[in-house]
Specification:
Helices cover about 60% and strands about 0% of the residues. Helix 2 packs across helix 3, helix 4 packs across helix 5 and helix 4 runs parallel beside helix 7.
Length: about 425
């Protein structure tokens, strides 16, 4: 890589990371976060997945098996994030002492915040592949990414932002395969990104995984190429399965063991748990989708940039003839993932902004806008305007409380310290006084 290109990428990364650092939260905001923090704390401090002795045992986001409580989140991501807690913990900063604000902030910033900044860089690379000038993509890439739900999910702890980064890596690898051909490194990168993505998000098992396999089948992979791809893809899933056996007794993720979520004091029952068909009619499913995507939760309404992407997928069909397979993987994965998440959930993702099951799809949506972004025309101006409007919406309404039941009817502007929590803690003198 030329030195000037490397410098440009570092500048972009640091600029995006700086913005994210200002917005990153200092307090856990949901049972989802408490469950993750409790598991990494238990792994590092006690060498176990059990939450029993964790300071976060009170989270509702847990299962009960053989006399012990465990997080019902997929374990692989938590294991991968545990070294971050270990490193921050070295000077004695913990989730349950005077340094808890610093630990929470540092853990989020070095996991989801880092992933969001890398997603900005990955999207800038995509812009470069279609000829967008470096000076333009240096501000256009963060504007586009921050104009999606990735911004509020990049300042709290969750799996969706990490998954989105992997989708961006996957898209870059697919386009490289199309333009530059198959290499061992690209095949392994594709398989590895796809395997980790499927392990921590699950929905890609019915979308990105089969469609990427179909895409590669059209590129004449050799037997050895398929072996490398399969091994790289299977390894994260195998490791996750081993962890699942320790937690649930089999390879099935904890969230699908509904019987393990049935215990005294559980906040869940069969009707509220995801993973099974929730609607008996297409009309009921359509009403749910309308509320999740347009009314109420407003997945597209708060971020019109994402809706514009779907329009672009249709109107730029001829442009995509040069990379039809990549376009079909993106469009197909969006449809399959959205469809699966809609028919197997009924609570809109709980108290979380947007329809969080679709958050990880943001790079797949945005790549569909590349034809318009590559053209210096009114369409690029339209996209930039939609991105600016969406980013403003994310900053004003979603960033202040990502773990909240944000809807079109209750959207409001908060106090300044909700947007700059670390600065607020420092100014008030409460950084080390929880």
């Amino acid at each position: 890589m030329p030195l000037d290109v490397a410098r440009d990428k570092w500048r972009l990364f640091l600029a995006a990371f700086g913005v994210i650092a200002l917005l990153t939260k200092t307090d856990p905001g949901s049972a989802h976060e408490l469950s993750r923090y409790g598991t990494v704390e238990s792994l590092v401090d006690r060498g176990t997945f059990q939450l029993d002795d964790s300071s976060f045992i009170g989270t509702i986001d847990k299962i009960y098996r053989d006399g012990h409580y465990y997080s019902h989140q997929t374990p692989l991501l938590t294991v991968l994030e545990a070294p971050v807690y270990w490193a921050i913990n070295l000077p004695g900063i913990r989730f349950n002492n005077r340094g808890r604000f610093v630990m929470t902030y540092g853990f989020i910033l070095l996991t989801n915040g880092l992933a969001l900044a890398l997603t900005v860089v990955a999207f800038a690379r995509l812009l470069g592949q279609v000829g967008v000038d470096e000076r333009v993509r240096s501000w256009l890439a963060p504007l586009m990414i921050f104009g999606t739900w990735l911004l509020p999910y990049g300042i709290v702890s969750n799996n969706h932002g990490i998954s989105a980064m992997l989708v961006a890596v996957l898209i870059n690898a697919l386009l490289q395969v199309r333009s530059e051909g198959v290499t061992n490194a690209r095949v392994i990168a594709l398989g590895g990104a796809l395997g980790v993505l499927a392990a921590i998000e699950l929905l890609p098992l019915v979308s990105f995984v089969p469609l990427t396999v179909a895409y590669l089948a059209t590129h004449g992979l050799s037997a050895m190429g398929w072996l490398r791809f399969s091994a790289a893809c299977a390894l994260p899933l195998l490791v996750q399965s081993i962890f699942n056996v320790r937690i649930t007794g089999d390879v099935i993720p904890a969230g699908f063991h509904h019987e393990l979520l049935s215990y005294d004091g559980s906040a869940f029952d069969a009707s509220s748990l995801s993973g099974t068909l929730k609607f008996t009619s297409s009309g009921a499913a359509a009403d749910y989708a309308w509320t999740a995507l347009f009314a109420g939760k407003g997945f597209f309404t708060f971020s019109p940039l994402l809706l514009l992407s779907l329009i672009a997928a249709i109107t730029t069909w001829r442009w995509w003839a040069r990379a039809r397979g990549v376009q079909l993987v993106m469009v197909g994965s969006i449809i399959l993932s959205l469809g699966a998440s809609i028919v197997t959930t009924n609570n809109y993702g709980g108290e979380a902004v947007g329809f969080r099951h679709a958050v990880y799809l943001a790079p797949a949506f945005l790549v569909l806008l590349l034809p318009w972004l590559a053209a210096t025309s009114a369409m690029r101006s339209l996209v930039i305007g939609a991105a600016a409007l969406s980013a403003l919406s994310m900053v004003l309404f979603a960033v202040r409380q990502p773990w909240s039941a944000l809807t079109l009817s209750n959207a409001a502007i908060g106090s300044w310290d909700q947007y700059l929590p670390l600065v607020g803690k420092v100014v008030s003198g409460n950084l080390f006084n929880p």
